[in-house]
Specification:
The chain is mainly α. It has one domain. It is built from two helices and two strands, in the order αββα. It has a two-stranded antiparallel ribbon. The longest helix is centred in the first third of the chain and has 20 residues. The protein is elongated, with a radius of gyration of 17 Å.
Length: about 70
């Protein structure tokens, strides 16, 4: 997936997390609507962040090795 797409999706998931934190459910007329599961949203945020990090630094983290 392209970096721009991943960053766009991450922004949407961060916004979803913000909305969930501001209120998990709300009413419209006589209907109650429930937002997405916070645990799933946060897991997706972590996954997207890892994918973005992987693309932006493909060599990964450099670790020192002692002999």
């Amino acid at each position: 997936m392209k970096l721009e797409t991943l960053k766009s999706r991450l922004a949407l998931y961060l916004e979803a997390e913000r909305k969930i934190l501001s209120g998990q459910s709300y009413r419209v007329g006589n209907r109650e609507l429930v937002r997405a599961d916070l645990k799933e949203v946060r897991a997706t945020i972590e996954d997207l962040t890892a994918q973005i990090d992987s693309i932006e630094s493909p060599g990964g983290r450099i670790k020192a090795v002692e002999f």
